[in-house]
Design brief:
Number of helices: 4
Order of helices and strands: HHHH
Number of strands: 0
Structural class: mainly alpha
Largest sheet: none
């Protein structure tokens, strides 16, 4: 009996080749994430933070009141014109 005959015939990991042993996941039983595959990736969580410096409209801007003043029919006409107007020169 060869060494390959003693190994299980089903795949226990990412490797589908029975001659290559599958790496043992070290995730503590949780599903793998991108951080497991690429541990040295840049931390982008700072991009989710809000700042007064990143708000171009200011603190006193009220989205709801501005939306209420929006002329939806005029906006629709403007969008239709843009879509149907050729930009070729």
């Amino acid at each position: 009996m060869t060494e390959l005959d003693e190994s299980p015939s089903w795949s226990t990991g990412e490797s589908e080749n029975p001659a290559i042993t599958s790496p043992t996941p070290t995730t503590g039983g949780r599903p793998r994430t991108a951080r497991d595959r690429w541990p040295d990736q840049i931390d982008l969580s700072v991009l989710n933070e809000s700042s007064r410096d990143s708000d171009p409209l200011g603190e006193d801007f009220d989205d709801a009141s501005e939306f209420a003043e929006l002329e939806v029919e005029e906006l629709g006409r403007d969008l239709a014109e843009v879509v149907h107007t050729s930009q070729d020169r």
